[in-house]
Amino acid sequence: MALLVEAAREVGEIALACKARGLEITEKADGQGPVTDADLAVDARLHEILRAARPGYGWLSEERPDDAARLAHEHVFIIDPIDGTRAFIAGDNTAWAHSLAVTRNGVVTAAVVFLPAKDSLYAAARGSGATLNGAPIRATTRAGISGAKFLAAKPNYAPANWLGPVPDVARHYRPSLAYRLSSVAEGRFDAMMTLRPSWEWDIAAGALLAEEAGATVTDRTGGPLRFNAPRPLLDGVVAAGAALHAQILSRLDPDAPRDSLPPLRD
């Protein structure tokens, strides 16, 4: 975790410097959204720092071609250099983050989510709890779904996703999935969910933060999250305190159609 913290803080300075001098923006192939020179610079520096420190670890990152060799590694770095690139481009300093995680045999063991513009650094190591800027954080223990504060995009509330009426919850949104999970870990929101397929690099770090803060984190059907898959997509994510999480799953339709397209980048 100490290695991830040091790396996250260093690349935070890189991202802010790129933003200050003006971003170079291009579009990814296949409609996967924009990428900036900051995304690429952050990815390059993280690869340099982390692989130098742990040369025997595999690597999975949004901004680097996937290498199947990672599947043979016990430990793997799973990285999103900038989660919430569109918000980063737009100048919304509350909604983008660096997301860094280490997995061992498919399970996240250490994680950092850093919002450099807010100087908010969330960190967790498995079995050691979660912190925000060094102070312990806890997810809420709210049990009732009605009125709960949810972080989710509008399509998640489509009636087709639910058994019976759509729950009457307080709807909120943040572009970065890593930040949504961190906000549940912090207890600022009661739950987050995304019901479409989700890339591992968007989820890995925030999932451990939420778990170590006392939340239950699963895929959309209640299944466990496993990482470093050959195709690194998860079947959605639901995170909340145990009682609320159970209520959410009891209301979601497990047979609702999945989006047939890969998830678009935030």
TrEMBL record:
KW Kinase (keyword) present: no
Keyword Metal-binding: yes
UniProtKB keywords: Magnesium, Metal-binding
Pfam families listed in its UniProt record: Inositol_P
Gene3D superfamilies assigned: 3.40.190.80, Fructose-1,6-Bisphosphatase, subunit A, domain 1
Family statement drawn from the similarity comment of this UniProt entry: Belongs to the inositol monophosphatase superfamily.
UniProt protein name: 3'(2'),5'-bisphosphate nucleotidase CysQ
Biological source species: Pseudooceanicola antarcticus
